[in-house]
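Q: My labmate handed me this sequence with no annotations at all. I'd like to see what the chain might look like in three dimensions before we decide whether it's worth expressing. Could you predict it?
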Amino acid sequence: MKLNILCIGDIVGRPGRRIVAEKLKTLVKEHEIDCVIANAENAAGGSGLTPQIYDKLLRYGVNLITLGDHTYRKREIIETLETAENIARPANFSEHAAGRGFGVYKTSKGPTVAVVALIGRLFMKPADCPYSAIDKILPKIQQQADIVIVDFHAEATSEKQAMGYHLDGRVSLCFGTHTHVVTADEKILPKGTAYITDIGMTGAHDSVLGRGVEGVLKSFRTQMPYPFPIATGDVKINAILVTVDSNSKYAERIERVTVGADSEDSMRYDSDDGKPEYFNNTF
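A: Here is what I predict for the chain of 283 residues:
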């Protein structure tokens, strides 16, 4: 059986949420998508996730949610992390950290998809070894899911590529997130795992990683703290579409997907709040 899986790059703030609301259901219908995975660690004001936004993303059509270094930025998400089965924080966080390292979703066709979140260690905050973590958790996940996918939330391209080869033939897809810039190296690795170094960002692309250019430039030029408002121009979804054979577990296709907003005005504000979003002066 063939399964079409859509993976959406880091959703940044209100513009990212709005374009997912506007475009996702059409994408699912047009491409006959069986499972939608989204990285949502930047969905709430550019940093973190709230239970309310988690619920919204599910209503928009997202089936599985992954997080990264901003997992606990909004403490109110902790209860959701502890109770929901379709949201994953990095599996190589401390074993005492709240939440699960993988999420599961049973598709309408029958097969179950699992997504594992991992976080890198190069140029990132301290974390346990991602290679040891996935080696330890993978046998358990394979007992619960037919298809296993890994979201490696990391800064260094070398670290992401190494993880792809470490998992080749053991999972159906390994994709990278965190850097917010889509890479052009999508491929099927020699043993059948689909791979891409980074699937990019869902949000305002007339920006620096989704934030307003002016504040970021001031911060870089002066080394002084400035607020980074969430940008609103040139809003796009960056994603990948992967086809997996549920019998062999191997990927048969991987392609990049970019979708723009119908109008810039529709992306500026969410229906629940007309105030500008601000994030602190770190990415």
